[in-house]
Write a structure and sequence with these properties.
Helices cover 61% and strands 5% of the residues. The chain contains 19 helices and six strands. It folds into three domains: 5-108, Fumarase/aspartase (N-terminal domain) (Fumarase C, Chain B, domain 1); 115-155 and 174-213 and 225-357, Up-down Bundle (Fumarase C, Chain A, domain 2), CATH 1.20.200; 368-463, Fumarase/aspartase (C-terminal domain) (Ribonucleotide Reductase Protein R1, domain 1, Orthogonal Bundle), CATH 1.10.40.30.
């Protein structure tokens, strides 16, 4: 059946009949884009001020409209039933409600405005606001990471490459790697907010408004730096949404990698961490199980976030200029990525804060092979060319493997025969603490270097 006369569209003067039910199912988007109601009403309030300056509204008329718009938002926040079956999207729904409350005056709010520049403005406002919120969540996670790193400063653990023990590191050094990768996410959001700071309103459908519309006034009202320079660009492109979903996917990928480590570390084979019960779950069949579901879900969500970016990229790559209805599909990937990344950041922060770190287990499982690089470095310091030193240590490790022992357990005679001078003194010096202490180069795992990282982190948090 077609829409009843009372539910006809605000754009249907050209049409003789209502939309087919299947077309309604395909095209109506209110269930998705009602998430933009705050931004839509903010945009209409600012647009109305521009229309006052253009002489379309008197100050009294604008005040009447402003009161009604704020009332609609209050009703929405209060959970009141506002929508009707014929409401195509949130923009048309708000305009219908406004007209019902203030009469024909409400029909003037769309003067000089198209849904194209209206939607582009609402969407940009949404992404700018969410970017600021997510940036703050990243900063909160960074603050928790820094707190943990300082609290557990001095604790040793094995560092890994290829999921194989590689070199001794400070646990704090590992945590600070998490801090600094997140600092680039913060910077990406800062750049994002700086780049995408143009107001689309006034661009109309694609050629610009025909009214003497005060775009600078409206831009300032909505927190944009300036009006867009080209009306076709303003309504056509979704590079802002692409960049936004890309940034969120990058955050998700980072969270996923650290979540993967925590999943491994929580196993009995590692035993490095015990997640709080609040961030774990059990098995429906095996009563002994405590599963790191929080980390596994964060890991899984990263694929979803990449999928959202890919869907959006695929959507826009073939859309002709200036506007096509394809672009209606731009919002759901963004909304989903926003919801997902917010909860992942919150869960990661709380899971880290409540975890129990098993440092005795970490140290107990540190293999002497972690010191192989330090022995090679010691030989280099004694004048042995590095490639020769590498070969000597490799021979020791290989011989130890044949005997089923650690290379440090081989006799002094074997060491000396292989090419290590004064083996007894070298063995006495070769400790995990010695290894870490030798790496106070800027950015290294040495205690002094890690303390410098703390200071850099604090400066970044203060700046941001």
């Amino acid at each position: 059946m077609s829409i009843q006369a009372s539910e006809k569209k605000m754009w249907d003067g050209r049409f003789e009949s209502g939309m087919a039910p299947s077309m309604i199912d395909l095209s109506f988007s209110l269930h998705v884009d009602q998430a933009l109601i705050e931004e839509d009403i903010a945009g209409s309030l600012a647009h109305g001020k521009g229309l006052v300056e253009s002489g379309v509204f008197s100050a009294e008329e604008y005040e009447k409209i402003a009161v009604a718009l704020r009332g609609i938002l209050e009703d929405y926040r209060a959970g009141k039933a506002l929508w009707q079956a014929g409401d195509e999207d949130v923009h048309m729904a708000v305009e219908r409600l406004l007209t019902e409350r203030v009469g024909d005056l409400g029909k003037k709010i769309h003067t000089g405005r198209s849904r194209n520049d209206q939607v582009a403005t609402d969407f940009k406002l949404y992404m700018r606001r969410r970017a600021a919120e997510i940036k703050n969540l990243v900063l909160e996670l960074q603050t928790e990471i820094l707190k943990l790193a300082e609290t557990h400063f001095g604790k040793l653990m094995p560092g890994y490459t290829h999921v194989q023990q590689a070199q001794p590191i400070l646990f704090s050094h590992y945590l600070m790697s998490f801090f600094f990768v997140l600092s680039r996410d913060v910077k990406r959001f800062q750049n994002f907010l700086e780049i995408h700071n143009e107001l689309p309103l006034g661009s109309g459908a694609m050629a610009g408004s025909a009214f003497p519309y005060q775009r600078n006034l409206v831009a300032e009202e909505l927190g944009f730096a300036f009006p867009s320079a080209n009306s076709i660009d303003a309504v056509s492109h979704r590079d802002m949404a692409l960049e936004f979903t890309s940034n969120l996917a990058i955050i998700a990928s980072t969270l996923s990698r650290y979540a993967e480590d925590l999943v491994n570390w929580s196993t009995s084979e590692f035993g490095f961490v015990t997640l709080s019960d609040a961030f774990s779950s059990g098995s429906s069949m095996m009563p002994q199980k405590k599963n790191p579901d929080s980390m596994e879900l964060i890991r899984g969500k990263s694929g979803r976030m990449l999928g959202n970016f890919t869907a959006l990229f695929t959507l826009v790559k073939g859309a002709p200029l200036s506007y096509s209805r394809d672009l209606q599909e731009d919002k759901e990937p963004v909304f989903d990525s926003v919801r997902t990344v917010k909860v992942c950041l919150q869960v990661m922060k709380e899971a880290l804060a409540t975890a129990r770190w098993n440092f005795e287990t970490m140290e107990r499982k540190m293999l002497p092979a972690l010191l192989a690089t330090d022995l090679a470095d010691f030989l280099v310091e004694s004048g042995v060319p590095f490639r020769n030193a590498h070969h000597i240590v490799g021979s020791l490790v290989g011989e130890a493997a044949k005997q089923g022992r650690e290379f440090t357990e081989l006799s002094d005679e074997v060491w000396e025969k292989t090419g290590v001078p004064n083996p007894k003194a070298v063995k006495a010096k070769l400790t995990f603490e010695y290894s870490v202490g030798k790496r106070n180069i800027e950015g290294g795992t040495g205690p002094d270097s890690v303390k410098q990282q703390f200071e850099k982190a604090k400066a970044l948090l203060k700046k941001n």
